Amino acid sequence: MEKQKLGFWQIWNMSFGFLGIQFGFALQGGFMSRIFQTLGAEKDAIPLLWIAAPLTGLIVQPIIGYISDKTWSARWGRRRPFFLIGAILSSIALFFVPYSPTLWMAAGFLWILDASINISMEPFRALVADKLPDSQRSYGFVIQTLIIGIGTWIASNLPWMISQLGVSDSAPSGVVPMSVKIAFAIGAFVFLLSILYTIFTTSEYPPEDMEAFKIEKTKKNNFVTDIVDNIGNMPSTMKKLGVIQFFSWFAFFTMWSLANPALTEHVFNNPAPIEASFNFKDPIQLADFQVQNTAFQKSSNLVGAYMGVYGLSSMAFALILVLYTAIRNVNRKWVHMFSLFLGGIGFILMYYIPSPAYLSGCFILIGFAWGSILSMPYAMLSSAVDPNRMGVFMGIFNMFIVLPQIIAALGGINLVSNLLGKETINAMIIAGISLLIAGLCNLLITDKHAISYQIKEGN
């Protein structure tokens, strides 16, 4: 079936739901460690508390991709039913996360939240490949990245903006401040609303051969066997991209889980106070704890705001690519390589900056890497796999995202960063080195069709 080229606003509408998805991910990535610390988690334990996120992705995304490939409704299409289910569950989880009274409940809500976001996210990746001709794949994924950048920047700044409006950052021991609670409630609302916008403004192509599709649906397939078979038959380019993804996502998981303790401690000099060090029955010590805790919470707001800068720079990166890829081909391999190099430099510079103001520059560089990670690998992948199995391959590709995160959560970050010393900021150096390795791994990609789709026939 010949797919027609779509205009900017058509692609914008079909990708707009990613605004809500990124609100969820940005609030989770920017403030989940803060919630854990507020509830008494020690720094070394934080990566393990995050393990729910990659584990759910490992399980959920291939399954959702497989099921959505075999779904069709004349009214709701193939991918949109999963957008809606994920949006409803994610919105509920987002609202209740900051009200967790204990660490185990916060970790449990993270599990539910990440599983729900994954239900919506994987079909969005497949939808771009479903709807767009190959010549527009880079363009489509870059517009998706533009929307993700907008969502990252706004959501990362929400607690700080709400605090500026007069909402308190102070809270008793073990209680998440109201500024964070309101931010997560806003995120829940935006998540649901943006997904609904895409659902009601976007149509989907039916299966090319409806009769063959119906026959395939009646077969009693074992989806586990099918997924394993697809893993065994991965295209060579997909495997090479997987190596790049491994090091890329190890770096970003390190940032999400440890940037808050690392930067509040090393850059702001306001680490989270350790409750066991205070006697709350002593009014002087109680007051001292409250002062230190409020300073930590305010510094955490600023860490979140600075992290939002990487969303802003990824948005600028995506906007430049949108303008370029609308009229010309782009060499995806070289763009991705140099973007990852810039991100790696941004992480390493965090160790050396003399004041918090320089964090903006670090996160601008990281944003270039983030913008490329969200677009170039998927554009290369979508040009290298069977269109009829796009959903399941997008889900399987997610394995290369979640496996490094699981390894990092199970002690990989602590093990490697401790080789440099006990300071938490060393984790950011490891993130930088990991991105530099990911950049070099782009040299493995040799498939010319994946590197740069040629629009003219015969090229």
UniProtKB/TrEMBL annotation:
Organism: Arenibacter antarcticus
Protein localization: Membrane
Top-rank lineage group of the source organism: Bacteria
Name of the protein in its database record: MFS transporter
Membrane-crossing segments per the record: 12-36, 48-68, 80-97, 103-121, 141-162, 182-200, 241-259, 305-327, 334-352, 358-380, 392-413, 425-445
Keywords: Membrane, Transmembrane, Transmembrane helix, Transport
Main location: membrane
InterPro entries (UniProt xref): MFS (IPR011701), MFS_trans_sf (IPR036259)
Membrane topology, from the record: Multi-pass membrane protein
One family name in Pfam for this protein: MFS_1
